[in-house]
Design a protein that fits this description.
It is built from 12 helices and 8 strands. With 274 residues, the chain is an alpha/beta fold. The protein has a single domain, classed as Phosphoenolpyruvate-binding domains (TIM Barrel). An 8-stranded parallel barrel has the order 1-2-3-4-5-6-7-8, surrounded by 8 helices. The protein is globular and about 60 Å long. The N and C termini lie far apart (53 Å).
């Protein structure tokens, strides 16, 4: 058996727009449900969501279970894992449990980007520790050539979200082994002195500048935009992987809208009926 192809990485190389959704509940059941919707990618957030290795594993399994389960779904969702910080040991663990694409937050310098790229790959081009017999990614050695094929299938996304990282955007994007650069609007806005206001003209100008520099380096830009207007703006600007929503606000908004239909009309909540 051959190591699975990373279709998300292929799409980035081909500059095919990938529409994604952010997962923040930490629940494998929710990940499995949303994997059947048809988003190109689902981001398992280890940065702000209540996740650990076990919950990330469960969500990877839930997303993978959608393969073949929904024959009418146009595409299989690719899993992307954002870890809480750029730790080489944590990268190894996430790769071993089956993540192929990893997003590293708060990458401010090309030196950091280089360290992350090395951690993603086996020697001689990287420093990832060997452990195929214990790794779900290698199907516990049932992929006989995993150690020789894995480097081609892993995908590294680095997140730039500070004034410092934007100052280093050219060198970060040009780092060998970096496949895509994700711009974090919220933290970038805060770093620029505009907390909670990613729509500020200065922040928007920096994001646009970043997109251009990432594209100039031959890499794929990405972003999270929870309004349709912003998402379409960045897709038009050349963003390749764009998350267009987050599961928790979507659930919250849908539940609130449903309740408002009845509360606004002065209708009391019905009894259980049992």
């Amino acid at each position: 058996m051959k190591t699975p192809t990373n279709f998300f990485k292929q799409a980035l190389l081909q500059r095919r727009p990938q529409i994604g959704l952010w997962l923040g509940t930490g629940e494998p059941y929710i990940a499995e449900i949303l994997a059947g919707v048809g988003f190109d990618w689902l981001l398992i957030d280890g940065g702000h969501a209540p996740n650990d290795l076990h919950s990330i594993l469960g969500q990877l399994q839930g997303i993978a279970s959608s393969v073949g389960a929904f024959p009418v779904t146009p595409a299989v969702s690719n899993a992307v894992v954002r870890i809480p910080h750029g730790d080489t040991a944590l990268i190894k663990q996430c790769l071993d449990i089956g993540a192929q694409t990893i997003l590293i937050p708060m990458v401010n310098t090309p030196a950091q980007a280089t360290e992350m790229a090395l951690a993603m790959r086996y020697p001689p081009v990287g420093i990832r520790g060997m452990g195929g017999s214990m790794a779900r990614a290698a199907r516990w050695s049932r992929y006989p050539n995993y150690l020789h094929e894995a480097n081609d299938e892993v995908c590294l996304l680095v997140e730039v979200e500070s004034v410092e990282s934007m100052a280093n955007i050219d060198a970060i994007a040009a780092t060998p082994g970096v496949d895509g650069v994700f711009i974090g609007p919220a933290d970038l806005a805060a770093s620029m002195g505009h907390p909670g206001n990613a729509a500020h003209p200065e922040v928007q100008a920096q994001i646009e500048y970043g997109m251009k520099r990432i594209l100039a380096a031959g890499k794929a830009p990405g972003i999270l935009s929870v309004t349709e207007a912003q998402a379409r703006k960045w897709l038009d600007a050349g963003a390749v992987f764009v998350a267009v929503g987050v599961d928790i606000p979507l659930l919250n908004a849908a539940a609130g809208a449903l309740l408002a239909k009845f509360k606004a009309a002065g209708v009391s909540a019905p009894g259980s009926g049992y």
